[in-house]
Amino acid sequence: MPFIIVRNDITKMQVDAIVNAANPSLLGGGGVDGCIHRAAGRQLLEACRALGGCQTGQAKITAAYKLPCKYVIHTVGPVWQGGGHQEPALLASCYRASLELAKEQGCETVAFPLLSSGAYGYPKEQALQVAVEAISGFLSENEMTVYMVIFDKAAYAIGEKRFSDIAAYIDDNYAEAHTDYGRRTFRMDMPRPAADEEVFAAPVSSSLPLENMSLSEKLRQMDESFSQMLLRKIDEKGMTDAQCYKKANIDRKLFSKIRSDAQYRPSKPTAIAFAISLELSLEETEDMLKKAGFALSHSNKFDIIIEYFISQGRYDVHEINEALFAFDQSLLGA
What we know:
By secondary structure, the chain is α/β, with parallel strands linked by helices. The protein is 42% helix and 9% strand.
Protein backbone atom coordinates (compact mmCIF):
# COMPACT_ATOMS: atom_id res chain seq x y z
CA MET A 1 0.00 0.00 0.00
CA PRO A 2 1.16 3.60 -0.53
CA PHE A 3 3.31 6.04 1.39
CA ILE A 4 1.90 9.55 1.07
CA ILE A 5 3.32 12.94 2.07
CA VAL A 6 0.59 15.45 2.93
CA ARG A 7 0.30 18.92 4.45
CA ASN A 8 -2.21 18.79 7.27
CA ASP A 9 -2.73 19.00 11.01
CA ILE A 10 -2.05 15.50 12.33
CA THR A 11 -4.77 15.90 14.98
CA LYS A 12 -7.31 16.20 12.13
CA MET A 13 -6.22 13.05 10.27
CA GLN A 14 -9.04 10.51 10.01
CA VAL A 15 -6.89 7.39 10.13
CA ASP A 16 -6.74 4.33 12.35
CA ALA A 17 -3.73 5.61 14.29
CA ILE A 18 -1.61 8.73 14.57
CA VAL A 19 1.93 8.71 15.92
CA ASN A 20 2.96 11.14 18.65
CA ALA A 21 6.50 12.49 18.84
CA ALA A 22 6.60 12.02 22.60
CA ASN A 23 9.19 12.66 25.30
CA PRO A 24 10.41 9.80 27.54
CA SER A 25 7.89 10.57 30.29
CA LEU A 26 4.93 10.38 27.85
CA LEU A 27 3.31 13.14 29.91
CA GLY A 28 2.99 15.73 27.17
CA GLY A 29 5.17 18.60 26.09
CA GLY A 30 5.49 21.11 23.30
CA GLY A 31 5.16 20.88 19.54
CA VAL A 32 3.27 17.91 18.09
CA ASP A 33 3.19 16.23 21.51
CA GLY A 34 1.37 19.15 23.13
CA CYS A 35 -1.05 19.53 20.21
CA ILE A 36 -2.04 15.84 20.37
CA HIS A 37 -2.56 15.93 24.15
CA ARG A 38 -4.69 19.08 23.93
CA ALA A 39 -6.83 17.67 21.12
CA ALA A 40 -7.28 14.26 22.80
CA GLY A 41 -8.21 15.66 26.20
CA ARG A 42 -7.28 14.84 29.79
CA GLN A 43 -7.95 11.12 29.39
CA LEU A 44 -4.90 10.73 27.16
CA LEU A 45 -2.62 12.06 29.88
CA GLU A 46 -4.12 9.64 32.40
CA ALA A 47 -3.62 6.73 30.01
CA CYS A 48 0.00 7.76 29.41
CA ARG A 49 0.71 7.92 33.14
CA ALA A 50 -0.18 4.23 33.37
CA LEU A 51 2.44 3.34 30.72
CA GLY A 52 5.43 4.26 32.89
CA GLY A 53 7.34 6.17 30.23
CA CYS A 54 9.05 4.99 27.05
CA GLN A 55 12.67 4.55 25.99
CA THR A 56 14.18 6.19 22.93
CA GLY A 57 13.52 4.16 19.79
CA GLN A 58 10.56 2.32 21.28
CA ALA A 59 6.79 2.89 21.08
CA LYS A 60 3.67 2.42 23.19
CA ILE A 61 -0.03 2.72 22.34
CA THR A 62 -3.16 4.22 23.88
CA ALA A 63 -6.70 4.97 22.83
CA ALA A 64 -7.22 8.29 21.02
CA TYR A 65 -10.16 9.63 23.07
CA LYS A 66 -11.35 12.92 21.48
CA LEU A 67 -9.17 12.59 18.38
CA PRO A 68 -10.79 11.42 15.10
CA CYS A 69 -8.69 8.21 15.07
CA LYS A 70 -8.73 4.98 17.08
CA TYR A 71 -5.24 4.99 18.57
CA VAL A 72 -2.31 7.19 19.45
CA ILE A 73 1.09 5.52 19.16
CA HIS A 74 3.67 7.29 21.32
CA THR A 75 7.32 7.00 20.27
CA VAL A 76 10.43 8.73 21.57
CA GLY A 77 12.88 9.89 18.94
CA PRO A 78 16.57 10.60 19.49
CA VAL A 79 17.94 14.04 20.28
CA TRP A 80 20.33 15.09 17.52
CA GLN A 81 23.92 15.11 18.76
CA GLY A 82 25.71 15.40 15.45
CA GLY A 83 24.86 11.96 14.08
CA GLY A 84 27.50 9.95 15.87
CA HIS A 85 25.37 8.65 18.72
CA GLN A 86 23.23 6.07 16.86
CA GLU A 87 20.64 8.71 15.96
CA PRO A 88 19.75 7.18 12.53
CA ALA A 89 19.32 3.67 13.99
CA LEU A 90 17.23 4.95 16.90
CA LEU A 91 15.06 7.08 14.63
CA ALA A 92 14.47 4.18 12.23
CA SER A 93 13.55 2.04 15.24
CA CYS A 94 10.84 4.57 16.17
CA TYR A 95 9.16 4.12 12.80
CA ARG A 96 9.46 0.34 12.78
CA ALA A 97 8.24 -0.06 16.38
CA SER A 98 5.27 2.24 15.71
CA LEU A 99 4.31 0.39 12.54
CA GLU A 100 4.54 -2.99 14.24
CA LEU A 101 2.22 -1.77 17.02
CA ALA A 102 -0.21 -0.48 14.39
CA LYS A 103 -0.07 -3.83 12.61
CA GLU A 104 -0.77 -5.71 15.87
CA GLN A 105 -3.92 -3.60 16.33
CA GLY A 106 -5.11 -4.26 12.77
CA CYS A 107 -4.60 -0.68 11.61
CA GLU A 108 -4.85 -0.07 7.88
CA THR A 109 -3.94 3.64 7.95
CA VAL A 110 -1.30 5.40 10.07
CA ALA A 111 -0.13 9.02 10.14
CA PHE A 112 3.32 10.14 11.31
CA PRO A 113 4.82 13.56 11.95
CA LEU A 114 8.45 13.99 10.94
CA LEU A 115 9.91 12.54 14.14
CA SER A 116 12.76 14.26 16.02
CA SER A 117 12.87 17.16 13.54
CA GLY A 118 11.48 19.81 15.93
CA ALA A 119 12.85 20.53 19.38
CA TYR A 120 15.10 17.45 19.19
CA GLY A 121 17.01 19.13 16.36
CA TYR A 122 17.35 16.28 13.87
CA PRO A 123 18.08 17.90 10.44
CA LYS A 124 14.82 17.70 8.52
CA GLU A 125 16.35 16.45 5.28
CA GLN A 126 18.14 13.61 7.05
CA ALA A 127 15.11 12.86 9.23
CA LEU A 128 12.94 12.50 6.13
CA GLN A 129 15.45 10.17 4.50
CA VAL A 130 15.41 7.88 7.56
CA ALA A 131 11.59 7.99 7.62
CA VAL A 132 11.24 7.12 3.94
CA GLU A 133 13.67 4.20 4.18
CA ALA A 134 12.08 2.76 7.32
CA ILE A 135 8.49 3.15 6.14
CA SER A 136 9.08 1.92 2.60
CA GLY A 137 10.94 -1.09 3.98
CA PHE A 138 7.95 -1.96 6.15
CA LEU A 139 5.48 -1.44 3.29
CA SER A 140 7.45 -3.74 1.01
CA GLU A 141 6.31 -6.62 3.24
CA ASN A 142 3.03 -5.32 4.68
CA GLU A 143 -0.30 -3.90 3.49
CA MET A 144 -0.90 -0.50 5.06
CA THR A 145 -1.32 3.13 4.00
CA VAL A 146 1.14 5.43 5.76
CA TYR A 147 0.96 9.23 5.76
CA MET A 148 3.83 11.59 6.53
CA VAL A 149 2.04 14.69 7.79
CA ILE A 150 3.77 18.04 7.34
CA PHE A 151 1.98 20.84 9.18
CA ASP A 152 3.91 23.80 7.77
CA LYS A 153 5.76 23.43 4.49
CA ALA A 154 7.79 26.56 5.19
CA ALA A 155 9.03 24.97 8.41
CA TYR A 156 9.62 21.67 6.60
CA ALA A 157 11.59 23.29 3.77
CA ILE A 158 13.81 20.61 2.30
CA GLY A 159 17.14 22.28 1.60
CA GLU A 160 17.26 23.92 -1.81
CA LYS A 161 20.76 22.55 -2.32
CA ARG A 162 19.46 18.97 -2.40
CA PHE A 163 17.25 19.68 -5.39
CA SER A 164 19.26 22.44 -7.04
CA ASP A 165 20.09 20.12 -9.95
CA ILE A 166 16.38 19.51 -10.54
CA ALA A 167 15.64 23.24 -10.32
CA ALA A 168 18.33 23.86 -12.92
CA TYR A 169 16.91 21.11 -15.14
CA ILE A 170 13.47 22.72 -14.91
CA ASP A 171 14.91 26.13 -15.77
CA ASP A 172 16.70 24.67 -18.79
CA ASN A 173 13.71 22.73 -20.11
CA TYR A 174 10.55 24.57 -19.05
CA ALA A 175 8.62 25.98 -22.02
CA GLU A 176 6.28 28.88 -21.33
CA ALA A 177 4.13 28.07 -24.36
CA HIS A 178 2.10 24.91 -23.79
CA THR A 179 3.06 22.16 -26.17
CA ASP A 180 0.30 20.93 -28.46
CA TYR A 181 0.36 17.14 -28.59
CA GLY A 182 -2.95 16.85 -30.40
CA ARG A 183 -4.67 15.73 -27.21
CA ARG A 184 -5.48 17.13 -23.83
CA THR A 185 -2.59 16.59 -21.43
CA PHE A 186 -3.41 16.48 -17.72
CA ARG A 187 -1.84 19.44 -15.90
CA MET A 188 -1.10 19.49 -12.21
CA ASP A 189 -2.59 22.99 -11.84
CA MET A 190 -6.01 21.74 -12.97
CA PRO A 191 -8.63 20.95 -10.32
CA ARG A 192 -8.20 17.26 -9.51
CA PRO A 193 -11.24 15.00 -9.95
CA ALA A 194 -12.20 12.87 -6.98
CA ALA A 195 -11.75 9.51 -8.70
CA ASP A 196 -8.58 7.97 -10.04
CA GLU A 197 -9.92 8.07 -13.59
CA GLU A 198 -9.07 11.68 -14.36
CA VAL A 199 -8.83 13.70 -17.53
CA PHE A 200 -7.80 11.63 -20.54
CA ALA A 201 -7.80 11.93 -24.28
CA ALA A 202 -8.69 9.52 -27.03
CA PRO A 203 -5.89 7.19 -28.12
CA VAL A 204 -3.72 8.50 -30.92
CA SER A 205 -5.10 7.35 -34.22
CA SER A 206 -3.35 4.75 -36.36
CA SER A 207 -1.23 5.77 -39.34
CA LEU A 208 -3.23 3.36 -41.52
CA PRO A 209 -5.60 4.86 -44.13
CA LEU A 210 -8.57 4.86 -41.75
CA GLU A 211 -10.77 6.84 -44.12
CA ASN A 212 -11.05 3.71 -46.26
CA MET A 213 -12.09 1.43 -43.40
CA SER A 214 -15.47 0.63 -41.97
CA LEU A 215 -16.11 1.35 -38.29
CA SER A 216 -15.80 -2.33 -37.36
CA GLU A 217 -12.49 -2.53 -39.22
CA LYS A 218 -11.22 0.57 -37.40
CA LEU A 219 -12.15 -0.93 -34.04
CA ARG A 220 -10.27 -4.10 -34.89
CA GLN A 221 -7.15 -1.97 -35.48
CA MET A 222 -7.13 -0.69 -31.89
CA ASP A 223 -3.76 -0.97 -30.18
CA GLU A 224 -3.29 -2.72 -26.84
CA SER A 225 -4.72 -0.81 -23.89
CA PHE A 226 -2.83 0.61 -20.92
CA SER A 227 -3.87 -2.34 -18.78
CA GLN A 228 -2.75 -4.86 -21.37
CA MET A 229 0.60 -3.13 -21.83
CA LEU A 230 1.13 -2.93 -18.06
CA LEU A 231 0.47 -6.64 -17.53
CA ARG A 232 2.70 -7.53 -20.47
CA LYS A 233 5.54 -5.41 -19.11
CA ILE A 234 5.20 -6.96 -15.65
CA ASP A 235 5.65 -10.40 -17.23
CA GLU A 236 8.56 -9.22 -19.38
CA LYS A 237 10.33 -7.81 -16.32
CA GLY A 238 9.81 -11.04 -14.39
CA MET A 239 7.99 -9.21 -11.59
CA THR A 240 5.03 -10.33 -9.52
CA ASP A 241 1.94 -8.14 -9.36
CA ALA A 242 2.68 -7.31 -5.71
CA GLN A 243 6.26 -6.33 -6.47
CA CYS A 244 5.05 -3.99 -9.20
CA TYR A 245 2.25 -2.19 -7.38
CA LYS A 246 4.23 -1.84 -4.15
CA LYS A 247 7.24 -0.43 -5.97
CA ALA A 248 4.84 1.94 -7.75
CA ASN A 249 3.38 3.13 -4.40
CA ILE A 250 -0.04 1.95 -5.61
CA ASP A 251 -2.86 0.54 -3.53
CA ARG A 252 -3.59 -3.16 -4.09
CA LYS A 253 -7.30 -2.48 -4.66
CA LEU A 254 -6.53 -0.02 -7.43
CA PHE A 255 -4.19 -2.50 -9.09
CA SER A 256 -6.95 -5.13 -8.95
CA LYS A 257 -9.27 -2.74 -10.82
CA ILE A 258 -6.66 -2.21 -13.51
CA ARG A 259 -5.98 -5.94 -13.85
CA SER A 260 -9.67 -6.84 -14.12
CA ASP A 261 -10.58 -4.11 -16.65
CA ALA A 262 -8.67 -4.16 -19.92
CA GLN A 263 -10.01 -0.69 -20.78
CA TYR A 264 -9.23 0.93 -17.41
CA ARG A 265 -8.14 4.57 -17.74
CA PRO A 266 -5.68 5.54 -14.97
CA SER A 267 -4.72 9.01 -13.88
CA LYS A 268 -1.48 10.38 -15.25
CA PRO A 269 0.40 10.08 -11.91
CA THR A 270 -0.77 6.45 -11.66
CA ALA A 271 0.42 5.63 -15.17
CA ILE A 272 3.80 7.24 -14.49
CA ALA A 273 4.09 5.43 -11.15
CA PHE A 274 3.87 2.10 -12.98
CA ALA A 275 6.43 3.25 -15.56
CA ILE A 276 8.78 4.10 -12.68
CA SER A 277 8.11 0.75 -11.00
CA LEU A 278 8.93 -1.08 -14.24
CA GLU A 279 12.02 1.11 -14.75
CA LEU A 280 10.98 2.00 -18.28
CA SER A 281 13.10 4.20 -20.51
CA LEU A 282 11.83 7.65 -21.44
CA GLU A 283 10.62 6.34 -24.81
CA GLU A 284 8.85 3.38 -23.17
CA THR A 285 7.28 5.71 -20.60
CA GLU A 286 5.94 7.93 -23.36
CA ASP A 287 4.48 4.85 -25.05
CA MET A 288 2.79 3.72 -21.83
CA LEU A 289 1.37 7.21 -21.27
CA LYS A 290 -0.06 7.25 -24.79
CA LYS A 291 -2.02 4.10 -23.95
CA ALA A 292 -3.78 6.14 -21.26
CA GLY A 293 -4.13 9.24 -23.45
CA PHE A 294 -1.31 11.34 -21.91
CA ALA A 295 2.08 12.72 -22.84
CA LEU A 296 5.06 14.37 -21.17
CA SER A 297 5.30 18.09 -21.84
CA HIS A 298 7.99 20.70 -21.27
CA SER A 299 5.24 23.14 -20.32
CA ASN A 300 4.60 21.15 -17.14
CA LYS A 301 6.99 21.12 -14.17
CA PHE A 302 5.62 17.77 -12.99
CA ASP A 303 6.53 16.22 -16.35
CA ILE A 304 10.00 17.77 -16.39
CA ILE A 305 10.78 16.38 -12.93
CA ILE A 306 9.66 12.92 -14.05
CA GLU A 307 11.77 13.22 -17.20
CA TYR A 308 14.77 14.27 -15.10
CA PHE A 309 14.63 11.18 -12.87
CA ILE A 310 14.05 8.74 -15.75
CA SER A 311 16.88 10.26 -17.80
CA GLN A 312 19.13 9.85 -14.73
CA GLY A 313 18.07 6.20 -14.33
CA ARG A 314 16.73 6.92 -10.83
CA TYR A 315 13.56 4.89 -10.24
CA ASP A 316 12.91 5.21 -6.49
CA VAL A 317 9.31 6.43 -6.32
CA HIS A 318 9.79 7.79 -2.80
CA GLU A 319 12.81 9.86 -3.83
CA ILE A 320 10.81 11.19 -6.78
CA ASN A 321 7.89 12.02 -4.50
CA GLU A 322 10.18 13.96 -2.16
CA ALA A 323 11.20 16.12 -5.11
CA LEU A 324 7.61 16.50 -6.36
CA PHE A 325 6.52 17.53 -2.87
CA ALA A 326 9.35 20.07 -2.63
CA PHE A 327 8.22 21.64 -5.92
CA ASP A 328 4.51 21.63 -4.94
CA GLN A 329 3.50 18.94 -7.43
CA SER A 330 1.15 16.00 -6.99
CA LEU A 331 2.77 12.75 -5.91
CA LEU A 332 3.08 9.44 -7.74
CA GLY A 333 0.95 6.47 -6.81
CA ALA A 334 -1.16 6.59 -3.68
